[in-house]
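REQUEST ID: PR-0412
SUBMITTED BY: lab tech R.K.
PRIORITY: routine
TASK: structure prediction, single protein chain
INPUT:
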Amino acid sequence: MVKVRLNQNQFDALVSFVFNVGVYGFRDSSLLHLLNEGKYDDAANEFLRWNKVRVGNRYVVSEGLGRRRRLERLLFLELPKNKEN
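STATUS: complete
OUTPUT:
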């Protein structure tokens, strides 16, 4: 679904995200659409929107999901370190 180049950190962050929200959630997300437009920074900010869980008939903010999304965002934005041979 991703049509743009990713570095390893971006790929890893997206794998974690998709594992949690599911393929269909990712497919329809603003995160994916912004990413495919080449708007990497805007896409990174979309991670933070996915911090809610359903409780009964409503969605409430989850501290745990908020923490996870912040870490995924940071990983997505971090440049990979060069490996020394």
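NOTES: The chain has one domain: 8-77.
REVIEWED BY: pending
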